[in-house]
Amino acid sequence: MGEFKVMVCSLCIGIMGIYLFNEFLNLFPIVRKEVIYIEDLPDEFEGFTILQFSDLHGKTFGRDQWILTRLINKQSFDMIAITGDVVDRHNPDLTPFFDVLEGIESDAPQFFVKGNIDSLEDVEIIRQHGLEMLDEPYVFNRNGKELLIKQYVWNTVLGDEFDDKVVIGLGHEPLPQNLGYDLILVGHYHGGQIRIPGYGAIFIPNIDGQQWFPDQSDVMGLKQFEGYSQYTTAGLGASASSKWLQKRWFNPPEINLITLTNQK
């Protein structure tokens, strides 16, 4: 009987240790860096850096988001790409998101695209907050050379007017399809949300429905196709139909620094 009690106590301590470790993991976002090759990138934009974050889902990182904003403010970048789902579906309050924006010290342009959880009302409030909503392509111009930032529209091929342009598409849900963009930045998958150490993600909500044990190259990070690249951030928060299931497991929240290059 004594051995049984020891086993039960050890099991409880182990489970509590795993839980506390995961809670600690979720407190501190990491910075994931990627250098992405774009063949026709003008030399004027060599080293152009994008800070991307996505899928906040109302999560807080310290009082007034100081943990997250301190991390962002330590980085150097030319623009910020916010690729959707900033609200919690169970409590659609934009305050945690606006706390992030207000804590960012950089004056680099900030671009926002809607996620599947964000409502149209949310989008209008965010618009009033002053973010660039990409109703029209945004043009960076350096010495007469251009880099275009455009909202990525599903199943819509870029027009002929973009043929000789370098175009970065911002969207929310991954859709591996060549629509004429050089690079697409997306989120939505949360890095799998639940990950098994040593294996990876066990689930993603892809366009075909719920996918269990997906190809790990689809879940997060850079995936290169013929003629274009797609970068999927693992994001910051979590989402689930039940609030008590809304947690990341063994999956640290992240922001991303994406540096463009024309050098192989």
What can you see in these coordinates?
The protein has helices at residues 2-25, 66-73, 95-103, 120-128, 216-219; strands at residues 30-37, 49-53, 79-82, 110-112, 138-142, 145-151, 166-170, 183-186, 195-196, 200-201, 203-206, 209-212, 221-225, 228-232, 254-261. The protein has 264 residues and is an alpha/beta fold. The strands form four sheets. It has a six-stranded mixed β-sheet. A five-stranded mixed β-sheet has the order 1-15-2-3-4, with no helix packed on it. The protein has a two-stranded antiparallel sheet with strand order 9-10. A hairpin with a 2-residue loop joins strand 5 (138-142) and strand 6 (145-151). The N and C termini lie far apart (66 Å).
What is the H/E order?
HEEHEHEHEEEEEEEEHEEE
Helix content: 10-25%
Shape: globular
Number of helices, counting only DSSP H or I runs of 4 residues or more = 5
The end-to-end span amounts to: 66 Å
The spatial strand order of the largest sheet comes to 5-6-7-8-14-13
* Structural classification: alpha/beta
In the predicted model, the low-confidence regions spanning at least 5 consecutive residues are none
Average residue pLDDT: 92
> What fraction of residues sit in β-strands?
25-35%
Largest sheet entry:
6 strands, mixed
Record field, number of beta strands? 15
CA gyration radius, whole angstroms: 20 Å
